[in-house]
């Protein structure tokens, strides 16, 4: 399933969630699912262009494991009051300096007294790691699902030789159209031009950076020390183990648990997106690490 198949990231939500306002005035809703006595709370960052509501089955599966879940909303999608276009643009700087800290603060206020976890799917996992670099005391645990750096040499042959072409084409297309027409091409949603330029920079150079940011993300990542629980999927070419290893190599992992789930375990296709509707096995794999020593 492509990210544009049935996910419809641009449709406004109907009002479910906790209202949040970022430092620059961006308004959106944080989707919250919280059990009565949580053992931990998780700030979850979606994949590129996927609205928060599509992680509701995952949030409810984690609730059954005792984890309170706060699903961040991408600027430009779902409940966000912004939409990308020729006259509306943003990049990693707005996401990391304004939006994600606001969601993190909202989670801390709503779920005090329990361990806090940062995590994400695909690009969401990468930005969760970057946020840890910028806010070191945000969490001592990182949860990654189908996530890894998009750096093209970190992908297996022969597909990796085609990736630099895509990494140059997508920002060009976004610049030409005012925003990436993701649903039309089967990659992401209607994405801001600067997001695509920042993403492409990492994909081509292997380095994380946000245009206009005052702090160096590579330096920030190198100071991260965190327990990592990761889930990959057997048939997911978008997030192979080699790309995860490249991302983790930028940090100091104090403990690593990584599982690769297949279709029989998931009860659905073991690809980049299908797990979102059949997420019990993913939730159990992540939550199991709460009771296990680092390895």
Automatic annotation (TrEMBL):
GO terms for molecular function: hydrolase activity. InterPro entries: AB_hydrolase_fold (IPR029058), Hydrolase_4 (IPR022742), UCP037442_abhydr (IPR017208). It holds the Pfam family Hydrolase_4. It comes from the Bacteria. Residues 1-22 are annotated as: Disordered. Residues 40-175 form the Serine aminopeptidase S33 domain. Keywords: Hydrolase. This is Alpha/beta fold hydrolase. It comes from Lysobacter brunescens.
């Amino acid at each position: 399933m492509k990210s544009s198949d049935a996910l419809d990231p641009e449709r406004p939500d109907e009002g479910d969630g906790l209202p949040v306002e970022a430092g620059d005035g961006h308004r959106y809703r944080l989707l919250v699912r919280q059990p009565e006595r949580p053992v931990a709370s998780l700030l979850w960052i979606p994949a590129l262009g996927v609205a928060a509501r599509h992680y509701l089955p995952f949030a409810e599966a984690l609730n059954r494991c005792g984890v309170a879940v706060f699903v961040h909303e991408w600027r430009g999608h779902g409940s966000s009051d912004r939409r990308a276009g020729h006259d509306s643009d943003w990049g990693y700087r707005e996401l990391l300096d304004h939006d994600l800290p606001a969601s993190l603060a909202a989670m801390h206020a709503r779920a005090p007294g329990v361990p806090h976890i940062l995590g994400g799917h695909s690009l969401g996992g990468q930005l969760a790691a970057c946020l840890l670099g910028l806010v070191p005391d945000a969490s001592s645990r990182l949860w990654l699902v189908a996530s890894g750096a998009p750096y093209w040499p970190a992908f297996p042959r022969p597909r990796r030789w085609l990736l630099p072409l895509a990494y140059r084409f997508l920002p060009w297309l976004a610049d030409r159209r005012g925003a990436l027409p993701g649903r039309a091409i089967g990659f992401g949603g209607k994405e801001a031009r600067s997001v695509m330029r920042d993403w492409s920079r990492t994909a081509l150079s292997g380095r994380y950076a946000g245009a206009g940011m005052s702090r160096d993300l590579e330096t920030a990542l190198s100071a991260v020390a965190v327990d990592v629980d990761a889930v990959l999927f057997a048939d997911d070419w978008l997030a192979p183990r080699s790309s995860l290893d490249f991302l983790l190599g930028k940090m100091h992992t104090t403990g690593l648990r990584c599982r690769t789930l297949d279709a029989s375990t998931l009860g659905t296709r073991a690809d980049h997106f299908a797990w979102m509707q059949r997420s019990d096995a993913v939730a159990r794999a992540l939550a199991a690490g709460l009771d296990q020593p680092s390895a």
